[in-house]
Amino acid sequence: MYNLGNLLLETGKIKSSKEWYEKAIAIHPNYSEAYNNLGSALEAWNEHDLALVNYEKAVELKPNFSDAIKNLANAYLKQGNYEKGKTLLQTFIQQKEATGWENLIMASLSPIVFENSQAIDDFW
Q: What pTM was computed for the model?
C-alpha cells in the first residue's frame, strides 16, 4: 500500500496516493514513512495544515527521521513559523552532512531569524 502510494505520488496522482497512504497507516499506525509521504501528498494538494500534522506525527514516531524533519521545517516556514522552522532545519543539518543546498537554505533564512552576520557564516 505504501509503495503504491509512492508510485501514485511520483506520477502525479496525488488524491489516489493520499488514499493509499491512509490505508497503510490504518494497518500500521506507527508507520512514520507513510505519515511523512502522506504529508507530502497533502502539501501537493495544498492542504498545508494537514500536511504539517502528518509531518509532526512522522517525527513523533521517529525523532531522527531526517526527511520528515526537513519536511516539517519547510511546513513551519510556509506558515511563517520561522523559529520552529529554523530549529528543525538546524536539527536536520546536524543529523546529516550539510550540503551546499542546506547551507543556502539556512543562509536565506538567517536575515529573518538570525543576525545578519550569521547569514554569511551559514552560507560559507
A: 0.76
How many residues are given for the chain? 124
The model's pLDDT over 28-84, given as tens digits with 9 standing for 90+, comes to 999 999 999 999 999 999 999 999 999 999 999 999 898 899 899 889 988 888 889
CATH of 2-123, one of 1.25.40.10, 2.40.240.20, 3.40.50.2000, 2.30.40.10: 1.25.40.10
Rounded to the nearest angstrom, the gap between the alpha carbon of residue 32 and the centroid of all alpha carbons in its chain is: 12
Instruction: Confirm if 36 and 24 have CB atoms less than 8 A apart.
Output: no
Burial category of 24 from C-beta neighbours within 10 Å (exposed 0-12, middle 13-18, buried 19 and up)? buried
